[in-house]
Amino acid sequence: MVRLVALIISIVLQIIAASIALRFMKLTKYRLSWILLSLSFAFMAVRKIIQLFEYFNRTPSDRWLMIDEWIGVLISFMIIAGVILIRELFYSLKRADIDRLKSEKRVISAIINTEENERKRFAKDLHDGLGPIISTVKMSLSALGDRIKEPTDAVILNNTNHLVNEAINTLKDISNNLSPHVLSNFGLSSALSAFIAKINQTKAIEIDFKSNMENQRLESEKEVVMYRAACELINNSIRHSGASRIEIELNKHEKFITLQFSDNGRGFDTEMLGNEDTKGMGLSNIETRVKSVDGVFILESTPGKGTSALIKILE
Predict the structure, then answer these.
(1) Which end of the chain has the lower number of beta carbons within 10 A, N or C?
(2) Of 106, 138, 162, which residue is a domain's last?
């Protein structure tokens, strides 16, 4: 009786397995490997049915025993052939995954390039469009200087001149932040050095920058990615960490370019970054940009012990 129950359960389970496997054949595009494995499940059920028939027959004939054995041989052959051939299915899935990653990188690269082109266009429009207008206003104010006699009017004119100068400087800063000409003309190290020098002038935070790449250039896209990432890390430290000092090292090691960043701020729990709601667009953008150039972005932080980051890309 126990054997009968076991045979019935085996038949039911193998029929279910065979039906599920046969349904998946369309997803595998009717590959021979999956067809063989699916049929092997079906023949396993057939074999169990023969064994059930023999159980009820009580006296199994040599003919049924031989059929049962040869079905076993056929099942073994189909399983071996299916396992050998299924490698091609796994290779196909791996190629599809590689193609998907390449497609994602192309899309991200196109987005980054479009963004940088728009930044350059907007910076040029500001510089060439609004810049001359403000400069003309400044010239007109200078022409009024000799005609003003009243002290009160002179004070107003001086204040206005000061505001116009502030507007010109602000316009230059905005234009340069959108598309730093130093980056395109002199490279990553010079652009970061200029950006950090401006921040150090404010005395809001001390940034120590070291590099062995003063006169070396990278591909334009990689320079932009490294520059934007470094600027984002600096801005995050200034806005959120409460740090008083930042250390940045940009170095070339054989075929690799590394940017090491660390601050002495309050730090945070990096496990919170697993939650998309708390990850923040800044760090997510850095990670996405770095991956688009086949780079690695590693962030480490501990509450009360500051934050450090490493960006590593091929030259």
Answers:
(1) N
(2) 106
pTM assigned to the model: 0.62
Number of structural domains found in the chain: 2
The whole-chain average pLDDT of the chain stands at 81
CA-nearest of 82, 101, 9, 112 to 51 is 9
For residue range 244-284, list pLDDT tens digits in order: 999 999 999 888 999 999 999 888 887 776 555 544 557 88
Assess if residue 138 is contained within a domain.
no
> Contact 34/89 with Cβ under 8 angstroms?
yes
Of the residues 106, 124, 158, the one at which a domain ends: 106
Distance from C-alpha of 302 to C-alpha of 132, rounded to nearest angstrom:
49
Helices within 126-187 (DSSP H only): 131-144, 151-178, 181-186
In a domain, 230, yes or no: yes
Helices (H), the chain: 2-23, 32-57, 62-125, 131-144, 151-178, 181-186, 188-201, 220-236, 276-279, 281-292
Q: Determine the Cα–Cα distance for residues 99 and 112; give it in Å rounded to an integer.
A: 20
Whether residue 33 is contained in a domain is answered as yes
CA–CA distance, 163 with 273 (Å, rounded to integer): 43
Q: Are residues 201 and 303 in the same domain?
A: yes
**94 plus 185 within the same structural domain:** no
Residue 254 lies in a domain: yes
d(CA 165, CA 22): 77
Positions of the chain with pLDDT lower than 70, given as ranges? 1, 58-61, 127, 273-281
